[in-house]
Input
Amino acid sequence: MDLKEIILKLTNNHGVSGREENIKEIIRKIVEPISDKVWTDKLGNLFALKEGKSKDKKRFLISAHMDQIGMIVLKIEENGIIKFHSLGGINPLTLGGTPVIIHGKEKLYGVIGLRPPHIAREGEAGKIGNMKELYIDTGYTRKELKDKVQTGDIITYDFETEILFDKYPMGQAMDNRAGCLTLIAMLDRLQIIKNRHDVIAMFSVQEEVGLRGAKVGTYSVEADFGAALDVTFADPIADQRDTIKFNDPGFGLDKGPNFCPKLREQFVKIMDDESIPYQDCLAPYPGGTDAYMMQIINGGIPVLGIDIPLKYMHTPTEFVNLTQISNAARALAIASALIEFPCSEEVIK
Amino acid sequence: MEKKYLKIFKEFGPSGDEENISNYLKELMKSFADKCYNDVLGNLICVKKSNSKNARNIMLAAHMDQIGFIVTHIDKKGYLRFHSVGGHYPYNQVTQRVIFKNGIKGMICYDNEECLPKLKIDNLYVDIGAKNKEAAEKHIKIGDRFVWDTEPFEQFGNLCSMALDDRIGCLILILLAERLKAAKHNIYYVFTVQEEVGVRGAKTSAFAIEPDLGIALDVTGSDDAPGNQTKCSVSCAMGKGTGIKIMDSGIIVPKQIVDWEISLAEKHKIPYQREVLTGGATDSFAIHLTKKGILASTLSVPTRHVHSSSEICSIADVEATVKLLKVICESEKLPV
Output
């Protein structure tokens, strides 16, 4: 499996929260030949099953969200400029002068206008106002835009992904197509490794607007334990004391209130036995990834957090490291072969 | 507008204390439904079954609770301190008249002029004219809720009232029930509770009903008042038709539902607007994320001055919403 080819496909296409059809089709085509069963649900989550080989098998749900942050058209003003709003946590600083694509009836290219520094108003230079003041200029007049752009059309950054030094993909939507790539690579490895448990890969929707896909997806899968695959802040911008290193072969393994210590302990032992590198990743804030939904939906399940270190999160130039992705895929594949269900019930009376 | 409809906007019903409004709506609904009942949270559920063989279940949700206030302290002189139930702007409360469930009336005043520029609910109190604490406590207890006391009126084809959010949705359901003679689907008219404090009623009612399609009826903003009033933006304006929701803070409506609703509106020449609202959510938020996921949407009535004691909407937009909803319920095939 050529990870580079797939990450280019995953990040040069778009799937903003709530409108993931396009990216879902791309992923479906990749996972169908390497899975036992593939299906979707009403919100658009995509599931792929690799059946377990053991008699006492459990259901292991691994989620990676496939949606990305973007923007949405609010309205077209008299002079043809397009007012918009963020869809997910867009940082306004990334927007000034940025080329964008409006995904209307046809793709339309535009740019987010910014006043030149020469004629900036007092105190305005070097600053981006709030989203309400920004606008997109397509060069068209309002009349010309009439059949092309409508309220509610999706907008994305217009950036092509580059792979730096042949191993660091840089582009838009690495959050969380890097996680999707990991999940795909894991499914691929399960063609060789015999997984003990049923592994259900969930490419979830609408994570960026509040873990919505994971909520209904977790409800329907009824798994016994799970893992959420997402990205985390890598150096040099992370200011936590224990920074995750970007130039290290190890992916991040979460430690925090959403994650089951017993499951993690087992996972760590397997990593050590198999000599797979990982880094401890402190995730003290609850609720940041699909893991949170797995933890509380239905009766709740024990969950692992697997993180792909990423630089410059929520910008059009997110960096990830293919070595870490490859190791995370290997770790999850081996875990699905070896891990024991961590929470046997103890009857007191 | 008939008096019985205007009364919908006057009945007492802040979040968590919806008894009065629920009883009144039940009166209006009972002749149009096979059965009406309240669930554990207090949601009023009125079911009308269809004779059609291919009937699916449609849940229509309008929340009957209104934003209000709750008494937190009664001081020695008989003045009442209070907190918000639902989202309030403190400056909207100054000198408002208010009313309790038992009919006691009062007015809201502020501590002093220094607190005005950064006014908080804590700086406000209710004066009911009681002589002292004992006199006040004969009628009012800590935890009692109260609401604004204003009269609805019609003018220039618009309706102005408190609690248009979301009694206008309740009115839409009543008007629909009156007109819908032979629905193709089983219709669950759900008047939900506690929407204003986090779409709580819709959560449990949708879980119990588990419909094939859920549609919330609610207000949205209107982008046509002077100034830049609020932090959030909206793509709709009063008088331009029913708002077909595309996105708000709670839901991104599935594309096939948006497209279907728009095609119905166009086919039947019902005025509509594509709605994107950047702050606020409706019952569809809870319905959509229930169980394995339920296809859901919202039809909105563009409204000025939402969450004030005098919200204004266009009666023509209400009419357009009822029409589109009727066409939806009469559609043979649902996109679900």
